Amino acid sequence: MAKLSGLQRDVLSLYRNCLRAARKKPEASGAQRQRRNWIEEFEKNISIGKRDFGAIEYMLRKGHRQLEIYEDPGIRDIHR
Protein backbone atom coordinates (compact mmCIF):
# COMPACT_ATOMS: atom_id res chain seq x y z
CA MET A 1 0.00 0.00 0.00
CA ALA A 2 1.29 3.45 -0.91
CA LYS A 3 2.15 5.93 1.81
CA LEU A 4 -0.58 8.43 2.54
CA SER A 5 -0.03 12.17 2.44
CA GLY A 6 -0.82 14.33 5.44
CA LEU A 7 -4.09 15.52 3.93
CA GLN A 8 -5.14 11.96 3.12
CA ARG A 9 -4.46 10.93 6.71
CA ASP A 10 -6.47 13.95 7.94
CA VAL A 11 -9.44 13.01 5.74
CA LEU A 12 -9.40 9.39 6.90
CA SER A 13 -9.09 10.50 10.52
CA LEU A 14 -12.08 12.83 10.15
CA TYR A 15 -14.08 10.03 8.53
CA ARG A 16 -13.33 7.63 11.38
CA ASN A 17 -14.10 10.29 14.00
CA CYS A 18 -17.45 11.03 12.33
CA LEU A 19 -18.41 7.36 12.44
CA ARG A 20 -17.32 7.06 16.08
CA ALA A 21 -19.32 10.15 17.07
CA ALA A 22 -22.44 8.78 15.38
CA ARG A 23 -21.96 5.43 17.14
CA LYS A 24 -21.89 7.18 20.54
CA LYS A 25 -25.35 8.69 20.02
CA PRO A 26 -28.42 6.68 21.00
CA GLU A 27 -29.90 4.79 18.06
CA ALA A 28 -33.29 6.39 18.69
CA SER A 29 -31.71 9.77 17.93
CA GLY A 30 -31.22 8.94 14.25
CA ALA A 31 -27.52 8.12 14.55
CA GLN A 32 -27.85 5.46 11.85
CA ARG A 33 -29.24 8.04 9.43
CA GLN A 34 -26.47 10.47 10.40
CA ARG A 35 -23.82 7.84 9.61
CA ARG A 36 -25.32 7.36 6.16
CA ASN A 37 -25.41 11.14 5.64
CA TRP A 38 -21.73 11.46 6.55
CA ILE A 39 -20.76 8.57 4.28
CA GLU A 40 -22.76 10.14 1.44
CA GLU A 41 -21.01 13.48 2.05
CA PHE A 42 -17.59 11.85 1.82
CA GLU A 43 -18.57 9.91 -1.31
CA LYS A 44 -20.02 13.04 -2.92
CA ASN A 45 -16.71 14.84 -2.49
CA ILE A 46 -14.50 11.96 -3.63
CA SER A 47 -14.30 13.60 -7.06
CA ILE A 48 -12.22 16.47 -5.65
CA GLY A 49 -8.77 16.16 -7.17
CA LYS A 50 -6.06 15.06 -4.77
CA ARG A 51 -4.02 18.10 -5.77
CA ASP A 52 -6.85 20.58 -5.10
CA PHE A 53 -5.46 21.46 -1.68
CA GLY A 54 -7.68 24.50 -1.15
CA ALA A 55 -10.88 22.53 -1.65
CA ILE A 56 -9.67 19.63 0.49
CA GLU A 57 -8.62 21.92 3.34
CA TYR A 58 -11.93 23.76 3.13
CA MET A 59 -13.90 20.50 3.30
CA LEU A 60 -11.75 19.33 6.24
CA ARG A 61 -12.47 22.54 8.17
CA LYS A 62 -16.17 22.26 7.39
CA GLY A 63 -16.20 18.60 8.45
CA HIS A 64 -14.38 19.33 11.71
CA ARG A 65 -16.89 22.09 12.55
CA GLN A 66 -19.81 19.75 11.85
CA LEU A 67 -18.22 17.01 13.93
CA GLU A 68 -17.59 19.40 16.81
CA ILE A 69 -21.25 20.39 16.82
CA TYR A 70 -22.46 16.80 16.61
CA GLU A 71 -20.15 15.63 19.42
CA ASP A 72 -21.79 18.07 21.84
CA PRO A 73 -23.69 15.95 24.39
CA GLY A 74 -26.73 18.22 24.10
CA ILE A 75 -27.09 17.53 20.38
CA ARG A 76 -29.14 14.41 19.73
CA ASP A 77 -29.62 14.59 15.95
CA ILE A 78 -28.64 16.66 12.95
CA HIS A 79 -30.80 17.07 9.86
CA ARG A 80 -29.44 18.19 6.52
From TrEMBL:
Compartment list: Mitochondrion matrix
Residue ranges constituting the Complex 1 LYR protein domain according to the UniProt record: 9-68
Pfam families registered for this protein in UniProt: Complex1_LYR (PF05347)
Keywords annotated in UniProt: Chaperone, Mitochondrion
Primary location group: mitochondrion
Protein family according to the UniProt entry: Belongs to the complex I LYR family. SDHAF1 subfamily.
Protein name per Swiss-Prot or TrEMBL: Complex 1 LYR protein domain-containing protein
Protein's organism: Phyllosticta citrichinensis
Record lineage: Eukaryota, Fungi, Dikarya, Ascomycota, Pezizomycotina
